[in-house]
Request: fold
Amino acid sequence: ALTRHHPVRTPQSPPTDRVSDFQTTCWTLVFTAGNGGESERSAALERLCQSYWHPAHAYIRRRGHSEDEALDLTQEFFSRLLALNWLQSADPHRGRFRTFLLTMLQRFLANAHDFATRAKRGGSSSILPLDNPLVPEIPDPSESPEHAFDRRWALTVMHRAASRLRTEAEASSRADLFTALSPLLASDPDPGAHDAIASQFGLSKGAVAMAIHRLRLRLRELTRDEIADTLSDRSSVDAEMQDLMAALRHHH
Reply:
């Protein structure tokens, strides 16, 4: 029988909780999850799960598993990371945590048939309860499993950075202005968008344009911070940023 697993919270899509306090580097969390005390390990694994659940689920889904199978396998994968101490083999000197995680996921799926067989015989612990529904991952036939993993990783990083930006805005006195401007950060707005916001908040069009520019710069800084947390060498941030943008472009 499998080792009894610790509960792992399933994030909503996209994950939203525990964003503002995610300041510890990913490799520090990996070390804690692999070597800390029981409560520390559980907490560290949950935070890692919040960051990498969706990339892992997308990869499993694209490998041909049904939605129900992908949910079960994703939960089982993250549970085993803790229960079987897989994270003790993680080496920060190898660089990218997502590369390590993808390798572990591939090894896990190579034995997925054994897991499914044990589960049918009742040899596995019960599947972890889903605290929150997960928006189904709809596989794209033209997308490889590796690209699916990278795409969801990129979307998760962008979402975490955007959530931190929103938290900063809410801590200021202009949360309402941020709410109006945030839809304009991802692409060039319609010609009349600046006029409407300027009129609504009593600003000049130039001030609105400057606010958008500053928010975009800050979003980029926060995205770099999120990426840096997953690397052992911050000199690799630029390369990871390029990979992130490539993953998003590939999807579109």
